[in-house]
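ok posting inputs for the protoporphyrin IX containing FE job
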Amino acid sequence: MRSIWGEDALDFKPERWISDSGDLRHEPSYKFMAFNAGPRACLGKHVALMQIKIVAVEIIQKYDFEVTKGDKIKPVPSVILRMKHGLSVKVTKKI
Ligand code: HEM
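and the output
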């Protein structure tokens, strides 16, 4: 991921997606491995992203997530994007 997004790839920096003029910054589709890019790219990408956002909002409103410290976070490039060592998190229900 660092080879694509730079040394701070793992940092939470939403501002990285905003240009100097305040617009959303365009990044080539080839940099997003999950859906691939080009003529055979995933046709369901936009449906999938919309569903992911809807589900994420529902879950984030109800639960807190904390990534287990010290875990190695490493993606495995393959047909299906997955984590090499999994991603363990502590989940707590919001009061
Ligand atoms: C998180 C969800 C999804 C992921 C990560 C995903 C990922 C992918 C990937 C990596 C490919 C292969 C692209 C290539 O060969 O270069 C693909 C192809 C495809 N996906 Fe998805 N997909 C998702 C959801 C969906 C959904 C919801 C639909 C349909 C509503 C869909 C329909 C398709 C179709 C039809 C293709 C074949 C496109 C072609 O070969 O021309 N996908 N997808």
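notes: Residues 1 and 57 are 25 Å apart (CA to CA). The chain has one domain: 2-93.
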